[in-house]
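Honest question from a wet-lab person: if I give you the sequences of every part of a complex, can you actually get the arrangement of the whole thing, not just the pieces? Trying it with mine:
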Amino acid sequence: MDYNLIINANCEDEMQKFIDNDVKFDLILTDPPYNIDKDFGNNSDKLSFSDFLNVTKKRLGLCHSLLKDNGSILWFGIHDYISYVHILMIEVGFYYRRQNIWHYENGFSRSTKEPLTHYEPFLWFSKSDKQWVYNVDDVRKPYKSEERLKNPVYYRNSKGERLAWQPNPKGAMRGDVWSFPTLAGKNFKHEKTEHPTQKPEALIIEMIKAFCPKDENGFYCGSILDPFHGSGTLGVCCEKLNKQGHRIKWIGIELEKKWCDIARERIDRVVFEGNITRGQ
Ligand SMILES: C[S@@+](CC[C@H](N)C(=O)[O-])C[C@H]1O[C@@H](n2cnc3c(N)ncnc32)[C@H](O)[C@@H]1O
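Yes, you can. This is the full assembly:
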């Protein structure tokens, strides 16, 4: 099986081929069409509500068959429909772990009759209710305040013993609100492509760090599938981590050749930067 590649195809066909060949992944991390009328060069974001539910259920079923026993799925959505996707996840056999929020300060508005949009949810479900991967220490953050350190704070452990709380030297546990700016504006002009719904690399890297399996030396070594690869953010992020010594195996599937070409360019820039002198 070849990894670290983009497949220009319909993900439903490719996922079925993987299933037929008994290929399994550790993680499916994807940002599918939200069905909000975006122009991806196809009609995938313009379905009737019932077609949207039907294809989503079919795709989730394929994802379920493709995950290893301790595998997880991370699936972006929009507040309008995320509760329907949540129910479909349960119907195809996944177990709920968490509804996470991708929060951005630089929100946007299409109407003055509703609040600004400041978040997009992404669901985390696991294949098993007993085992999954979550690398808690890899996504810790600095404590917000040192107030709690000034006077001891006590708590009771499971045995009922009274203990003084100590801060974790690696930082505070990350929460389920993931704050990263969207790619709007001048600050991101080098990262942003023409793709209408490109995700920020910083967010996707943080998600990989949290959910990708690691080897005994602490390197990420899992296999990750993105069936809706778009401009290739998942591939770019895996390759950036692989340049640091990790060994992530990834596959991105995308219907439109235009986005596959943009993804390939972005990924080549990461893989070959510093390795070859271009033009020689
Ligand atoms: C929300 S975008 C993904 C954006 C991506 N996360 C990025 O950062 O660029 C969804 C993508 O799924 C693609 N798509 C839609 N239906 C598809 C299908 N059946 N198979 C593969 N790709 C599909 C669209 O063309 C679109 O580029």
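Two things worth pointing out. The pocket of S-adenosylmethionine is lined by residues 10-12, 31-33, 40, 42, 44, 195, 197-199, 227-228, 230-231, 233, 253-256, 259 (CB under 6 Å). The chain has two domains: 5-133+176-272, 138-175.
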